[in-house]
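Summarise this fold before class:
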Amino acid sequence: MDDQSMTDAFSILSRGEADTDRIAAAVASHLRIGDILILTGDLACGKTYFVKGLAAALGCEDVVTSPTYALVHTYRTAAGDLMHIDAYRLADIREFRDLGLEEYFVESVVAIEWGDKVAAAFDTYLSVAFHLAGADADHRVLNFSCLGERWSGEMVRLREEIGGGDDEPHAGD
């Protein structure tokens, strides 16, 4: 990441599913067709749940599920297509490129779970890293960062809308 992206990075504490839905809705309000979201974090940290929140905020009425075995699910939303990719089973970026999905990226908002495996394929993206937070099984810290000019201008507004960037990550106090 460049220096500007690191300066714009911020963290949020989600205290449960309602917070995660609210954070995802805030992100959704900044999305436009062609945007890439890189989602990272351990198993069961909330990546798929976050995509469910994105889809709902974008007006999708479909049931959103993990694309781990299918690799890709595409959902129609009021804002356009949401392409949900899971890179967990991909060996490397070459295998990702072999899927031939690039032509669809310009027509969709793209959310990639385990996106750190394929992030190098993109010049610009918003990254959300999910981490368990302490002893409470419902709490997650979401670390937001970006690469490229598309998101560097949005990060301050996104942080203000979500309510993060203070000394202690928080959401929905």
Residues 1-5, 166-173 have pLDDT under 50 and may be disordered. The beta strands are 10-14, 36-41, 72-77, 80-86, 108-113, 125-132, 140-147. The longest strand covers residues 125-132.
